[in-house]
Amino acid sequence: MTNKINQLRLEIESHNRAYYVNDDPKISDYDYDKLMQDLIKQENLHPELITLDSPTQRVGGTPSEGFEKVTHERPKLSLGNAFSPEDLRDFDKRVRQTCPDATYVVEYKFDGLTVVLNYENGIFVQGATRGDGIVGENVTNNLKTVKTIPLRLKDTATLEVRGEVFMAKKAFEDLNQRQLLENKSVFANPRNAAAGALRKLDPKLTALRPLDIFVFNLETPENLDAKVQTHTQALNHLKELGFKTSQVNAFSNIEDIIDYTRVMAVDRRKLGFEIDGLVIKVDDLNQRETLGNTSKSPRWAIAYKFSPEQVETTLKGITIQVGRTGALTPVAELEPVTLAGSVIARATLHNQDHIRNKDIRIGDRVVIQKAGDVIPEVDHAVTEKRNGTEIAFQMPKTCPVCGEPTVRNDGEAVTRCVNIECPAQVFQKLVHFTSRDAMNIEGLGPGVMRLIIDQKLVANPVDIYHLAKQKDVLITLEKLGEKSVQKLLDAIEESKNRELSRVIYGLGIPLVGANGSKILAERFKSMEALSHAEIEDLNVIFDIGEKVATEIVAFFKTPKNIEIIKGLQEVGLNMLQESKIVSNNLQNKTFVLTGTLPTLDRREAKTMIEAHGGKVLGSVSKKADYLLAGAEPGSKQTKALELGVTVIDESQFLDIINNADI
Fold first, then answer.
1. Is 456 in the active site?
2. Which residue is catalytic, options 41, 93, 109, 639?
3. Which residues of 315-344 are buried (b: 16+ CB within 10 A; e: fewer)?
4. Is the domain of 452 the same as that of 560?
5. Taking CA atoms, which of 258, 364, 426, 558 is between 20 and 30 Å from 601?
């Protein structure tokens, strides 16, 4: 019986590959369904023989309560961007300074959702989203529904690959047609439809969406034999194993690549899937190792972004959105039009100056585009098509939500509502606080947030952590029942364990993003220390400029903000940064950083120093033990030599890191 089941599995997977990967079906749908039914029947008779790689498991499993977090073994870096031929030439110059004989491969930059697939002994064991590059979400069961992902490889390889899950244009159109026939709302674009499908808690719902994948990188090249020395060879190897791999084109010089970008900017519309650019990579894997990475992106690859597509439509009106900082943003209300695969009915107009400088008026025919192929914006008005009925726009003198006066400070382009209790601001701040990059409270999205605000159950972040006292009221609200309320309360309780950087980000300090919050958490180690920081303490931090420093200090001098932080601490939120000490090799040693290091950036070096027990100072003084100097060290090196501070280069620094005897 085992042999029969195995034979059925091999035959079905062979037909899956022929149909979904090679686009070359070998049998009819009827015959395929008969094979699948036969396998299901045999496995029902012998459930002890069901395995993870069986084709029947592609739509198996029960709905998840929520997605587990997955910490990637290797950081999944994002790519630097190029927007012009000159950007590509600069990239080429940087590469050739280290690898003068480098050759490149160019592949499509797919407009989908990046995932990481792990195989052990040839079996697909885990699939996760990229997330923030460090932590993603376990979506293994959902990925099993993607027919082009092999559940078993053609050998017993243990490896990790990265790919892009997407939805083909035709499949997307068919999906929206079905939505219309079922009186359901249509999806805005293929990317949103694919990303939403992959995050369904029930794999059976994911299976209803026509998802596909292109695998574009082998994350574990050390597992290959010596014959595989290039990215091209690695992709060929992955294709032999059963993956659907991305198309690559080889180039020896950057000018030919620039010519190719011009061709593909037009020809991309002929593809059966959406791309928003091209990815240029050094082909040789050893040269990649030599070039290395920055803290954010590899030095051996870059993404070339296509210029945004444009389309003309009518500006029917302008409405105002009030953000969490009180900023009033004018929004264009448009005659719906299709742009880059999406139906666009609204687009940002940025601010009053943008509207005035471009002379955009209500009633105009306007040209819209997607900024970075993502955010719709009005580029310009078609003034020659005016008929005299167009109306000039002025920002309101009072907030359209709370009615309080608006102000525009000197030197700022933004008009603001200064009422910190404005309902629009309260709503946006709370949505931000509970968002994925902040406290990540599952089940407390904008819809539920609006419900509980309207019921006056919450007015600030602290109130969220007292919702358990209002359980009986929550159960009575529309779209909420006892089970969903309990899940929500559990998620709120669980969020108390979030790391300090997420709490900082959730507070919504102006100009401080998720990455800046991580820097502040690593630097100050506690909310208490951060709240007492002065501008000079913040200015010495790499990536924290004077304007950001001023906003941080002002935030922590506002009594209302301090009150909220105190309340969050009282309900049990984490206000301390976890120690990431690897060793005490640098205990009681202090460093100052200057210049450009060969392979490390300053943040990487700083993180390494602190992980080994050392400290980093912002300026040279007699307190410093070492000056870690790179190219163009400037005045810090001169001062270090005057004070007798030991000057070391990156190579010496790495020796010190790895040896306690210093």
1. no
2. 109
3. beebebebbbbbbbebbbebeebebbbbeb
4. no
5. 258
Where does a domain end: 275, 305, 335?
305
| Residue 88 lies in domain | 81-305
Q: Which of 427, 105, 137 is nearest to 280 (CA)?
A: 105
Mean pLDDT across 436-447: 91
Angle between helices 602-611 and 650-657 (to 10 degrees): 20
CB-CB contact of 312 with 384 (8 Å): no
CB 34 within 8 A of CB 12: no
Q: Which of 386, 459, 456 is nearest to 427 (CA)?
A: 459
CB 404 within 8 A of CB 417: yes
Give CA separation, 278 vs 213, 248, 258, in Å: 17, 10, 11
Give the pTM. 0.51
Whole-angstrom Cα distance, residue 140 to residue 155?
21
pLDDT per position as a tens digit, 153-195: 988 888 999 999 999 988 888 888 887 777 766 776 788 788 8
Q: How many residues comprise the chain?
A: 662
∠ CA 303-306-309, rounded to 5°: 150
Q: How far apart are CA 203 and CA 142, in angstroms?
A: 5
Of residues 257, 211, 217, 254, the one with CA closest to residue 234: 217
- Strand 212-218 to strand 159-166: parallel, antiparallel, or no bridges (unpaired)? antiparallel
Per DSSP, which regions of 411-487 are E strands? 415-417
Are 188 and 260 in the same domain? yes
Assess if residue 406 is contained within a domain: no
470 and 389 both lie in a single domain? no
Q: Are residues 330 and 237 in the same domain?
A: no
Strands annotated E in 363-463: 365-371, 375-381, 406-407, 415-417
- Partnered with residue 161 across adjacent β-strands are 117, 218
Q: Please, are residues 214 and 246 in contact by the beta-carbon 8 Å criterion?
A: yes
